[in-house]
Amino acid sequence: MMRIGMQRWLWGAALLALLVSLGAHATPAVYATGAPTFTVVVASAYLRDSPVAGAPPTFSVFQNQTYRITGRTSDRTWVALDAAGASGGTWIRASYGTVSGDLSAVPVTGVAGAGAGGGSAAGAATPAATAPAASGTGGTAGVRLKFTLTAKSSYVRAAPNYSSTRLASLFRGEAMTAISRDAFGNWVRVEYGGGTGLGWLPLGVGTLGGEVLSLPLDGPGVATVVSSPANSAVTVPVVAAGATPNAPFPAWVPTINAHMAGIYHAAAANGRDPNMFALVGDCNSEEWLFQGVVAVGSWDYVNHPYLAETVRQFANAWNRNSVAVSGGFNSTSVLDPGLATPTQCTWGESPLACELRVTRASILIVELGTGDHYFYDRVESNYRRIIEYALSIGVLPILRTKADRLETEERGAPPNYINDVIRRLGQEYDVPVLDFDLATSTMPNHGLTDEPGNDFHVSAQALGEHVLSFLQTLYAITHAP
User: Fold this and answer.
1) Which range marks the domain in which residue 71 is found?
2) Does the pLDDT of residue 139 top 60, yes or no?
3) Which helix (H) or strand (E) holds 100?
4) In terms of domains, do 341 and 209 share one?
5) Residue 11: how many CB atoms within 10 A of its CB?
């Protein structure tokens, strides 16, 4: 995981240096109040001769520069800027910045996706017909449009802005459904990952199968549950109390027997919090990829309204950044006092022990194994220590299998070695096993993103299943007799 991160950092630094070397940072003009303007939010970008990704570059712009908008495409995915010194057209994706002012007052002067390299200046393209406007400014209720990613990749985010939590990485060609938009039509809220995830994408990273303004404004139908004592907030939909699952849980969600339920129900008597879970994990378990999806209300409850009750019950847990979760962590790391966080942990305390002490959790979800591929022969002994420690203080451990095969691909371990160890230990100790390996078995590339070398980061679809299957497991535990 650190290997991939360093490669991406070096590539990004080199690219930024190249772009900076191409031209000086021009000082943009100050425009009259009310004039629609565009402020660049990405580090740097090219203006292009026409509104298409492959068009010749004509100028370089940089973060925090502001320009007057002189034209736009009908779908608002591209805008033309008043940039003196450009060698041709001045088009830029709307998703590369923020628009101030009324974009609808700007004339349509280009066609998104028109042939590149036409040599047309901004405003010279044949105007496109504007789709009929929806009633009022709020779009049409119930409209759903296909959205296909055309950019190489993009983050789907928790809110319609670039500073919000990143929920997942999506890649070129992925199709999803846009269900709403922001007030300016610059962002769309999409159902992704086969309908299991819900988040925001900038309109300019893909193509929309219709007029963006026909989508309803994102609005009512959510309520905020304020948790205490952390004073954090978790957003959940308004659903009828007492909702129940409309179908049996899939095979990878564990069945909770009397022994497992007994450990959980005894948690309060042992001084544990029955409304708190703790997490130990690696890069695929980091907050913005897992708990944060639920915390900010960007998980889709449409097909699973009964889970709103479970989200409310564990309200404090969704906002917790675990000291036992980090990119590159493995079963050795979480037991190593040298890797504990000094601001929260005491001297000689491991990340695992620290997290369980600070949270007083009654449930522990163990999501390791990917980072254990170099020393896969240590997994069994480390997992035994994790399980036995949890049980010794009255905590119910949930063991989760993994989607990757790194120990076999990079170290020659027997096929599915670590997952088989996890399953066997679950049976031996009679604790739940959430079989994520089984859950991702029918997904493209086994639920993994296609990366250089051997794959180990989970895909958007798998991220959605990660959240859903864990919520279902929590529901099964809290509703066990």
Assistant:
1) 18-110
2) no
3) strand 97-100
4) no
5) 10
